Amino acid sequence: MLNNTLTRIKTGIAGLVLSAVVIVGQTAHADITLPPPAERDVIEVNIHGYDQLAHLFDDLNYTLEKWNAGERVVPRLFLQTIPTVWRDELANQLTVEAKKRTFFRTLGPLTLLANEEIALQQRALREAIDNNDSDIIAELAKQYRVETAPNDPATIAELEKRIAPVPASLAMAQMAIESGWGTSRFAALGNALFGQWTYGDEGITPKEQRSHLGDYKIAAFDTPFGSVRAYMKNLNTGSAYQEFRDKRAKMIANEEPLSGAALAETLTRYSERGEEYIKDVKAVIRQNNLGHADDAVLDDGPYYYLIPKGD
Predict the structure, then answer these.
(1) 304 φ, ψ to 5°?
(2) Residue 94: what pLDDT?
(3) 3-state class of 187 per DSSP?
C-alpha cells in the first residue's frame, strides 16, 4: 500500500512533468513524440524531502536490493522540477552514497522515457519507409536536422543513424557531472542538467561568463525531462557528435549492446576539457556500476508525478 503522499489526479493533466511530450500527430507536420499518459494512469506525489522520497522508493519496491539482484525494471517516476533544497540537502546532509542513490533513482527514469520516445520515432521511420510515406520521412528529417530529400537513400541512411538511443549509463554520468549531482545553480534555477549553451534565447547567464565567447547562456527548461530530451537531440543532431553517431551505428550493425563507456570515448568535443572530461565520465560510469542501467526498462505501471513541496 502506498503512503498517503500519493493522490490520484482528479482533474486534467495540464502542467504535468511530461507536458513537453505531445500527442503523436496525424498530419505530416505534427511532432512525432510520445503521447502524454491518460489521466487514469497518473499518480501525483508530493515530496517534502529526502526521507519521504526514500519511503516512496521502498513503497514501490524500487530498492537497491532488487537492483543488485539483477531486476532492471524501473517505475515511471518523473520529477516536475529540481528541488532547490537539493543544493543543501544532497550536497551537505547526506552521505555520498545516499546522495548518489537519490540522484540516479530519481532522475534515471527520465533517460529511459527519452529513449522510449526515440524508439517510437524509429518505428515511425520504419513504417514510413515500408509505406513509402514521404510526409513522415520529411517530418522526421526536419526534427533531426537532415537535409530532406525523402526518396533519397542517403536521407534514409542518415535518419537511421540519427534516430537511435543514447545509453542510459552515458546520459546519467554526464547528468551527474554537468549538474553537480543535481545541486548546481543551473539545475536549481532552470532544470538544466547537461550544461547546454544557448545564444539569443532565454537562459541562465553564468556568473563568470567569458565575454570573448559571445553572449552565451545555459539553456533553461520547464522540466528536467526537457533537459534530458534536448541533450539526446543534441547528441543525435550536432555536428560535433558525428563520431558518436558513427560508432553507435557500427555497434548496432554488429548487433553489439550499446555501451555508455565505449561511446563516451567519442565525446571529446562535449567539454573544453577534452580527454580529461572523458576520463571523468567513464569513472562515474565505472564507480557507480551504471553499465547495468543500459539494460533497464520502464515498467508498465502508472506515471508517478513527483512534485517538490516546501522549496
Answers:
(1) -105, 110
(2) 80
(3) helix
Q: Could you write out the DSSP letters of every residue in 80-148? A: SS--TTHHHIIIIIS-HHHHHHHHHHHHHHHHHHHHHHHHHHHHHHHHHHHHT-HHHHHHHHHHTT---
Long-range contact pairs involving 248-252 (C-beta distance under 8 Å, separation at least 24): 248/161, 248/164, 249/160, 249/161, 249/164, 252/164
All 3 cell numbers of residue 46? 508530493
| Beta-carbon count within 10 A of 65 CB | 8
pLDDT tens across 297-309, in order? Answer: 999 999 999 998 7
SS3 215: coil
DSSP assignment of 12-34: --TT-GGGGS-PPPSSTTS---P
Q: How far apart are CA 151 and CA 157, in angstroms?
A: 11
Listed as own residue / partner, the contacts of 128-136 with beta carbons closer than 8 Å and 24 or more positions apart are 129/156, 135/28, 136/28, 136/32
**Taking the CB of residue 175, how many other CB atoms lie within 10 A of it?**
26
Residues contacting residue 71 through CB under 8 Å, at least 6 positions apart = none
Q: Which three cell numbers stand for residue 65?
A: 536490493
Mean pLDDT in order along the chain per 10 residues (311 residues): 36 30 33 80 86 90 93 94 78 82 94 96 95 91 85 89 98 96 90 85 66 67 95 96 98 96 96 94 97 95 88 56
Model pLDDT for residues 40-75, shown as the tens digit of each residue: 788 989 887 788 888 999 999 999 999 999 999 999
Instruction: Name the β-bridge partners of 79.
Output: 306
Query: In the structure grid, which three cell numbers stand for residue 279, read together?
Result: 576520463
